[in-house]
Design brief:
Growth Hormone, Chain: A, disordered N terminus, disordered C terminus, mainly alpha, single chain, two-stranded antiparallel ribbon, 21 helices
């Protein structure tokens, strides 16, 4: 963090600068106002990661920028760093590891039932504990994200993820199912530090024409982990009766997870200060949650996102059970069907992200993808029991393309509807809804499958996806972030409690010149609207 002391000339000229700025509002977006990470907005204003850089922040010559009680709002010039892709790819790596550990048991449900001597419902809880843990921990972790920034959250999530893998490594005996559950709970806590990050990373690091693509790449890692979780366990852990040999196969799977987690690098500390525009004290954090729940469009999106993602969680958890009922002995192909669902969904997510960056049609794209996910679910339901696995592969892939492809769309649509509120809070609330519906759908569909068969269980999900599609149609496309991106200095009314001091002829520092060589500048004056968004 750079905290430069003002020289005497700056102190002496502060009054005249303030007057000049009041007469010429366009100076509020002067290029010398740097919004780069770890560099102060003005030599006299320190951009501490724990303080907010609201427009209402008082820029005093001798002090730091103290947050005010007003809501967070964006400032001036945005510099896009070349390292942004490295950040999102590193995040995708450890997100992938966490997602793998979520689904690794459910993808070979019957084998772990035999090994540990427990019921199918007990194995289902190894998946559902991820969903249950997320609900009470969402708000505390969202607060930590606002308080300490991206790097601290990334380090914590990665460490917990690795710890959970090592705990499960010690559960390779048939009588140690409680240890397995403990390790899975640790990994589920790590998930809380991971699941809501894609939209936050995209907004903090990427320009206006890249955010949706970047969000899709971040979600891509999580979906890739699920795909590997469907593919690898059935291969590494065959359905055999020798429990010692089975324990050996299971240990290989966990060693892969533990060793791989030590390699990825984490986002650098400068990522923390990139949340300067949205960092806020406790009061603003709580008031932000209240404002979000007063936003009807966002509340509708919370419900519709939860219905879609919850259906996906239930399908992923119960897929092995459904396939084995119709195709006995096809554990490996059951995993491959899950892989097909997720891989096609990853492709759908990437296409959706690129499409959004080009067209900005958030409402239309979200609605079309939701309807197609419903259609895919109906077709999958009707073809699952036909006796032809190749048909199931095709219909499951079509369903996954839209159902999984919807996930980053929901994140980005939420950011648009809730700007300038924190992306971490909005995406966290979406994920909490997904966990709640995921638990409800997994338990309910599991009971329906056990008592009535797979088709009634899938019809159960189709009904709720239909409800989600209808509710999506009622969401108004209030694209607040897009409106802010289109604002210019001439039509923005500054509402600073005290003006930020700017020298028109201020020369960049040596550090700024080095930063300029590594970065390309994208001017996005997103000044502050008088109406609080």
């Amino acid at each position: 963090m750079v905290n430069e002391e003002p020289n005497q000339q700056e102190r002496d000229g502060s009054a005249s600068q303030t007057s000049a700025l009041g007469e010429n509002p366009s100076l509020s977006a002067h290029p010398s106002v740097s919004a780069r990470p770890s560099v102060s907005i003005h030599p006299s204003v320190s951009a501490h990661r724990s303080s907010s850089a609201h427009p209402s922040t008082l820029a005093q010559p001798s002090g730091s920028a103290h947050p005010s009680s007003s809501g967070p709002e964006d400032l001036g010039v945005i510099k896009v760093s070349k390292r942004r892709w490295a950040v999102v790819l590193v995040f995708s790596c450890y997100s992938m590891c966490n997602a793998f550990q979520w689904i690794q048991y459910s993808s070979i449900n019957n084998i772990f039932m035999n090994f540990y001597g427990v019921s199918a419902f007990a194995i289902d809880w190894l998946s559902m504990c991820y969903m249950l843990t997320y609900i009470p921990l969402l708000l505390p972790v969202a607060w930590l994200l606002e308080k300490f920034g991206l790097r601290t959250i990334a380090l914590t999530g990665s460490a917990l993820n690795c710890l959970g893998a090592w705990v499960k490594l010690g559960s390779l005996k048939p009588h140690l199912f409680p240890v397995t559950l403990l390790g899975q709970v640790v990994c589920s806590v790590a998930q809380v530090f991971i699941l809501g990050m894609p939209s936050r990373i995209a907004s903090v690091w990427f320009g206006a024409n890249e955010v949706s693509t970047a969000c899709s790449v971040a979600v891509f890692g999580n979906q890739l982990g699920i795909a590997i979780g469907f593919l690898v366990p059935p291969v590494l852990v065959p359905n055999i009766k020798d429990q010692d040999k089975l324990a050996y196969h299971i240990s290989i799977m966990f060693y892969i997870i533990a060793v791989f987690k030590e390699k990825p690098k984490h986002p650098p500390s400068r990522a923390q200060s990139l949340s300067y525009a949205l960092a806020s004290p406790d009061a603003s954090y709580l008031s932000s949650i209240v404002r979000l729940f007063k936003n009807l469009n966002f509340v509708l999106l919370i419900v519709t996102y939860g219905l879609n993602a919850g259906a996906f969680y239930a399908l992923s958890t119960l897929l092995n059970r459904m396939v084995i009922l119709h195709y006995p002995g096809e554990e490996v192909n059951a995993g491959r069907i899950g892989l097909t669902i997720v891989i096609s969904g990853m492709l759908g997510a990437m296409i959706s992200g690129i499409w959004l960056d080009r067209t900005k049609t958030y409402k239309e794209t979200t609605l079309v993808v939701y309807i197609m996910a419903l259609v895919g679910m109906v077709v999958y339901t009707l073809t699952l029991n036909l006796g032809h696995l190749w048909v199931v592969f095709i219909t499951a892939g079509a369903m996954g393309f839209f159902m999984t492809g919807y996930l980053p769309l929901g994140f980005e649509f939420a950011v648009e509807l809730t700007y300038p509120e924190s992306e971490g809070i909005s995406s966290g609330l979406l994920n909490m809804s997904a966990q709640v519906f995921g638990i409800i759908f997994t338990i309910s569909q599991g009971q329906i499958i056990d008592n009535y068969g797979t088709r009634p269980g899938n019809i159960f999900l189709c009904v709720f996806l239909t409800l989600g599609a209808v509710l999506t149609a009622f969401i108004r496309a209030d694209l607040r972030r897009q409106k802010a991106n289109k604002e210019t200095p001439e039509n923005v009314v500054p509402v600073f409690h005290s003006q930020i001091l700017v020298h028109e002829d201020q020369k960049p520092t040596e550090e700024e010149e080095e930063e300029e060589e590594e970065s390309k500048t994208s001017k996005a004056p997103t000044g502050v609207l008088e109406e609080h968004l």
